[in-house]
């Protein structure tokens, strides 16, 4: 066999010595009922990234109860980005090891929340218990399905929606609000760890008269199971839930993925991303997308944690800290 020229051999040896770059990948750690959304977001972003950068990228997902997911990241799960349904689940990553920068809400538009949703009631077809408002959920004989507020943002928003509307109904009387929420949670037979688990309990295990969940989850159930079994009820007043996102700074700097992680989250705010968000029944920030899909989003009176309940720091300390009002209510059920 003829020997290779020295210059060619040197080139081959040099190439063999170079490290082989693994395909770029990102891990998005998200909450329970965003699974279907990211199944559509991810391939759209991959196509855009490949067109611009001429390189491949793989998107991996992890889903579960929002607060449980945040604790997994704090404990070492190497998420490049987090896409949650409440800001405390990102703030905890600021507080525990500075995984996320303290100014995370200023890094993307709309305080880093690309969409919102609202809490609604999913009832069985015909609404046999006549459930129309939050007060109906506290009636004797009504079985309410809601995920655990200690592990799920979905459950936390349900608790706060009930508390906030009771405050408005009773002129800001916290004692009356507590009495009402305690009565409602006495009607909760099981506390699932996340929103998807609660959906399974209601739709497949056939437990409960009403599932309190996000608007997009109720729409997904209707899409998958048809309208023959269930219907959606919008209470007269409900809570608006913004879904915040953040780059996990310590992870992206370690893995060298900051550019891709930032581009991924920016895609959520882009016209293309907002279209996908609206198609999945999340309320988009883009006025054009919101107008185009207006039929999916009935007007509803809402309040937020910030404008009606003193902000998340106050809510966390008062209601959801160990030994807080929520723990006291559950212990007395």
Largest sheet descriptor: 7 strands, mixed
Give the strand content: 15-25%
Count of distinct strands: 11
- Compute the number of helices: 16
Instruction: Decide which structural class fits the backbone.
Output: alpha/beta
Helix content: 40-55%
Give the overall shape: globular
How would you describe this structure to a colleague?
The chain is an alpha/beta fold. The chain has 2 domains: 22-114 and 243-296, D-Maltodextrin-Binding Protein, domain 2, CATH 3.40.190; 116-240 and 303-331, Periplasmic binding protein-like II (D-Maltodextrin-Binding Protein, domain 2, 3-Layer(aba) Sandwich), CATH 3.40.190.10. Helices cover 47% and strands 16% of the residues. The protein has helices spanning 6-17, 35-53, 66-74, 88-95, 109-112, 153-169, 174-186, 195-203, 215-225, 249-255, 258-269, 271-279, 287-292, 305-308, 312-320, 325-331, and strands spanning 24-31, 57-64, 81-83, 115-124, 144-145, 210-214, 230-233, 237-242, 245-247, 283-284, 301-303. The strands form 2 sheets. Strands 4, 5, 6, 7, 8, 10 and 11 form a 7-stranded mixed beta sheet that branches. It has a 4-stranded mixed beta sheet with strand order 2-1-3-9. Helix 2 (35-53) runs antiparallel to helix 12 and helix 3 packs parallel to helix 4. The longest helix is centred in the first third of the chain and has 19 residues, at 35-53. The protein is globular.
């Amino acid at each position: 066999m003829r020997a290779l020229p020295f210059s060619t051999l040197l080139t081959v040896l040099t190439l063999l010595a170079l490290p082989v770059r693994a395909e770029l990948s990102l891990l998005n750690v998200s909450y329970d009922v965003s699974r279907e959304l990211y199944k559509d977001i991810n391939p759209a972003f991959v196509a855009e990234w490949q067109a611009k950068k001429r390189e491949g990228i793989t998107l991996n997902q992890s889903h579960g109860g929002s607060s449980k997911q945040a604790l997994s990241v704090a404990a070492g799960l190497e998420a490049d980005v987090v896409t949650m349904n409440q800001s405390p689940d990102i703030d905890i990553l600021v507080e525990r090891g500075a995984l996320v920068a303290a100014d995370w809400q200023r890094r993307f538009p709309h305080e880093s929340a690309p969409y919102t949703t609202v809490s609604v009631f999913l009832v069985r077809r015909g609404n046999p218990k006549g459930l129309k408002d939050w007060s109906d959920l506290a009636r004797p004989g009504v079985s309410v399905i809601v995920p655990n507020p200690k592990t799920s943002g979905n459950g936390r928003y349900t608790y706060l929606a009930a508390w906030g509307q009771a405050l408005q109904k009773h002129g800001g009387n916290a004692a009356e609000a507590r009495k009402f929420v305690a009565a409602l949670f006495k009607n909760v037979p099981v506390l699932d760890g996340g929103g998807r688990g609660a959906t399974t309990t209601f739709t497949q295990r056939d437990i409960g008269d009403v599932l309190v969940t996000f608007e997009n989850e109720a729409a997904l159930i209707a899409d998958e199971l048809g309208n023959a079994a269930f219907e959606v009820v919008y209470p007269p007043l409900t809570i608006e839930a913004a879904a915040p996102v953040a780059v996990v700074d310590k992870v992206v700097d370690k893995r060298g993925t900051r550019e891709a992680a930032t581009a991924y989250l920016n895609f959520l705010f882009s016209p293309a991303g907002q279209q996908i968000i609206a198609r999945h029944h999340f309320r988009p920030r883009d006025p054009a997308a919101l107008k185009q899909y207006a039929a999916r989003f009935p007007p509803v009176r809402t309040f937020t944690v910030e404008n009606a309940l003193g902000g998340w720091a106050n809510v966390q300390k008062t209601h959801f800290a160990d030994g807080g009002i929520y723990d006291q209510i559950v212990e007395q059920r």
